[in-house]
Amino acid sequence: MKDYRRYVGGVVNGLLVVAVGVLLLLHSLGYIRWDLWTAIIKLWPLLLILGGLNIIFFGRSYIGLGALILVALVIIVGVNLGFGRDADGHFYFGYGGSLGGPRFTEVIEKSQPLPAGATRGAVRIEMTAGRLEVGGASTALAEARFDQRNWPESLRPEIVGDGGQVTIRQSSLRSFGGIGGITNQTWTFKLTDQVPLDLTANIGAGDVHLDLSAYKLESLHYNAGAAATTIVLGDKSPRVTVQLRAGAASTTVEVPQNAGVRVTVSTGIGSSNLGTLGYSKQGRTYTSPNYDTSATRIDIDYSGGVGSFDLEPR
Predict the structure, then answer these.
(1) How far is CA 72 from CA 34, 40, 75, in A?
(2) pLDDT tens-digit series, residues 167-202
(3) Residues 148, 56: one domain?
(4) Domain shared by 162 and 306, yes or no
(5) CB 298 within 8 A of CB 242
(6) Do 117 and 70 have their domain in common?
(7) 214 with 162, same domain?
(8) Which of 40, 73, 98 is the last residue of a domain?
(9) Beta bridge partners of 84
(10) By the 8 A CB rule, do 231 and 222 touch?
(11) Are 142 and 112 contacting, i.e. CB atoms less than 8 angstroms apart?
């Protein structure tokens, strides 16, 4: 019995340490403000209530007290992340809570012009979660349509640019790796087809479709956490370099049938069709038979975690 109680006590203590660590991590990432810590301090009488419940149901057991404290922490964090007030002072539930403040539901359209005389363009997209669609030609460097419903004001998207470069991001979460989860938002972009283009996209989680076949794409740097991704490449440039970094994701890349393709796999893949395409294989590199003679060469460097990677000539 003592060994069992010691085991359970160790599990509860370990969960408490994990819970505190998660709280500190969320705070460091900006998902929890000081409001939560203030709320916890104000709720100190809850410890007396938990102590009383522990005596009633667990007989002054430290195991029971630890379990009750853990449940209380989960409830406090859940309420903090879940509830907030809108601009009219009404309560709502969903992502952001006291972090996000008032919410907005609207369609925002913005664009960044292509400067006169520009010889190339660079576009960077940073999105926490949702659906991302890129496709269609524009005379501007980038045309953006943001459809966001019930999102915190702090995550209102913005476009910042200088010359032939533009960054499209959510204002308060500017780094890849946000853990906000898939929420109701769709970003739709048209990019320039007038000049050679470099594209960078950092996506936390969601559904991503990049139809880049109309662009003079020279490089693509794509990073995704947990996303279902389809990338369509074209033959408008003689040389295209693609760097893909994916976590728990499924990635499909469509390439022109006449393009020479070389794929280097930096890490293991959960599943892939590379071995069925008739490409020559040397180490971790797969090369199409027409790579040396094609007018368009596409070099893909893929590094993935738990997920799949498929290449589809079309």
Answers:
(1) 18, 10, 5
(2) 998 765 443 333 343 456 889 999 999 999 999 999
(3) no
(4) yes
(5) yes
(6) no
(7) yes
(8) 98
(9) 92
(10) yes
(11) yes
Helix (H, G, I), strand (E, B) or coil at 256: coil
Query: In angstroms, how far is CA 30 from the centroid of its own chain?
Result: 15
User: In whole angstroms, what is the distance from residue 197 CA to residue 211 CA?
Assistant: 14
pLDDT digits over 226-264, tens only?
788 999 999 999 999 999 998 777 899 999 999 999 999
The alpha carbon of residue 172 and the mean position of all alpha carbons in its chain are separated, in whole angstroms, by 14
| Residue owning tokens 């780094």 | 175
Of the residues 98, 131, 153, which one is the last residue of a structural domain?
98
Q: Give dist(CA 276, CA 132) in Å, integer.
A: 30
* Distances, alpha carbon 66 to alpha carbons 10, 17, 58, 287, in Å: 10, 11, 11, 58
Do 167 and 294 lie in one domain? The reply is: yes
- Model-wide pTM > 0.70: no
**Same domain flag for 139 and 250:** yes
**Do the bridges between strand 185-192 and strand 142-152 make them parallel or antiparallel, or are there none, so unpaired?**
antiparallel
For the chain, the domain total comes to 2
Task: Provide the residue range defining the domain that includes 277.
Answer: 103-313
- Are 40 and 158 members of one domain? no
* The pairing of beta strand 280-282 with beta strand 285-287: antiparallel
